[in-house]
Structures are given as structure tokens and as C-alpha cells.
Amino acid sequence: MRCRIFILVVLTSLFWLPDPPVTATEVREIQLVSPAIAYQPRDFSPGSEDSPSGRIQIVKELRLLHQQGFRSLVTYSSRGVLGDIPEIAREQGFSGTIIMGVWDIFSKEEWAHALDQQTFVDGYCLGNEGLGIRYTPDELAEKMTRLKGVTGKPVSTTEPIDRYLDGPYREWLLNHSDWLFPLALPFWAGQIEPQRAVDWVVARSDYLQAITARKVILKEAGFPSALSEGQSEETQLEFFQALEASGLTYFYFEAFDQPWKHQMFQEPEFEAHWGMYRADGAPKKVMKWLASRWAQ
After folding, report:
1. Pseudo-torsion of CA 115, 121, 122, 123, nearest 10°?
2. Gap between the Cα atoms of 62 and 81, Å rounded
3. To pair with 132 at 20 to 30 A between CA atoms, which of 6, 45, 175, 230?
């Protein structure tokens, strides 16, 4: 009798053992389907993630972006209704690549949403410009390894592109992601002429590709359209026309203007004007050009 009980206990424990972690060799490589857009809902400032009308707004915006031609997207946070964006995007026809962002790598809520949405995503981006600020390299590495092990999906993080070229975290960034996912915003580096701004992006992206032989996808590639000397919707259009001809792999930054970046955090005024659409939802000249081009 004791023998049968012992065998039963052993067999039961085997059935309840957790699945072994997925190794890096088993993780599928990210293949970006263009065109791709960086998406944060319009008028969604930090703290408004649980807006009662939030899901309705996200459905409308993703339907619009898909109708205009976008097929892939990357998100930033998984709090509140933002944690449902991958599923909503698939429902609205996004058939390309969806990268789910987790802003606060220590948030149980964001982590739970990331796991809940794994059926709809192709990869994850843990953190955003927080290395050495909101989390240490070891903390981020541990979270990235855990998420990849549980989901079997590739995982990356993101920092401004020059941090991949120089600085205290350069080697860490080059070696601790399944693909390199830098932010490429040349305007912040003083590149205010569209073609030179694109040349700045191309030089850095090509260099990273050459020294690492790793896949490089730009999480953000953009140019502001207003509130700085010489900047307009025309110069933003010129930037994206040149970028389209560069052959780089990137997410358009970003879907909608975000006034809260300036209003809440005293960022420079141009930070509110990276969108393909204005804050009121009206398309800018670059979006009209892209939609017309893709429709052909």
C-alpha cells in the first residue's frame, strides 16, 4: 500500500512540474513586416490607462491605422487597457509584427498582461530609456530571460541609438537582446535638415549592423513637425521620403501627436509633435503621402 502511494505521489509531482525554460536557440527571430508604426493612443497621458472609453478609442484608432496601410506596431506600456492592444490590433486586421511594450519591468499588472497577450504578439520590448535609471542591467537581464523562457518569444529593450555606440552600457546593450531595438531621433542630436538627419540615422544603423551582425530594427524613427525653427509638416514629409529610400527597417514614430509630453513633463515643445496625425486626429502631410503611395 505504501509503495502504491509513493508511486502515485511521484507521478503526480511529475505532472505538476513547470515546463522547462525555452532556450535562446528555440526562440524565433523577429521578422518585421512593414509598414510599422509606434502606437500610443491619442490623449492617453500617464494615469489615464483605465479610461472608461479607452478601449473604444483604441479600436477606432487601430482601425484607422490599418485602413491607411500599417500592418505592424509596437506599444510602450501594458497598464490598464493598453495591455489589450495586441489582441485589439489583431481583431482590426494587423497581420504583421506586433511588439508588446512593458514600461515598468517590476509591475505585476504589466507582466500579467504581457503573458495574457502572448498569443497575439511576436516579441516583447522590456523597458524604455530606463537602463541605469529605473532598473539596473542585472534586473533587466533577469526579467528578459524570464519572459523569454515563459513565452518562447524574442525579447529586447530600447535606448537612444548613441548609447549602443558609446557609454557605460554599450557592451550590455549589444549582447543582451534577441535583436537590437534602438531609438533613432536625429533631431535630438541637432540634425534639423531632413536629408542630413536621415544620413545620421543610416550611418549609425549600418555601423551597428556591421559590428554585431545582429538584426537592427529602429523602434522609433521620426522627425517633429512643429514648434521649432524651420520645422513644419513639409520638413517632416521630406525626412520620411528620404528615410523610405534608405532601405532601413523601422517603426514610424509615432502615430499621434502627444501634447502631454510637453505639458506634464516640461519636455521641449517639439516633443509633442512627432505624430503622423495631429492631436485632434487629423492626418499630417506625411500621412496623406504615405496613404496615397500605399494605396497604389
Report:
1. -50
2. 14
3. 45
**How does DSSP assign 103-120, residue by residue?**
S-TT-HHHHHHHHHTGGG
> d(Cα 216, Cα 159) in Å, to the nearest integer?
13
CA distance to 120, 127, 166, per residue, from 124 (Å): 11, 10, 24
pTM of the predicted protein model: 0.89
Query: Left if phi > 0, otherwise alpha if psi is -120 to 50, otherwise beta: which for 292?
Result: alpha
pLDDT tens over the chain, length 296 residues: 434 333 333 333 333 334 444 444 467 899 999 999 999 999 887 877 888 779 999 999 999 999 999 999 999 999 999 999 999 999 999 999 999 999 999 999 999 999 999 999 999 999 999 999 999 999 999 999 999 999 999 999 999 999 999 999 999 999 999 999 999 999 999 999 999 999 999 999 999 999 998 999 999 999 999 866 667 999 999 999 999 999 999 999 999 999 988 777 777 888 999 999 999 999 999 999 999 999 88
What is the C-alpha to C-alpha distance for residues 289 and 274, in angstroms, rounded to an integer? 16
**CB-based contact 96:120 (threshold 8 Å):** no
CA distances to 34, 70, 225 from 74, in Å: 12, 11, 21
> 231-251 burial, b if ≥16 CB within 10 A, otherwise e?
bebebbbbbbbbbbeeebbbb
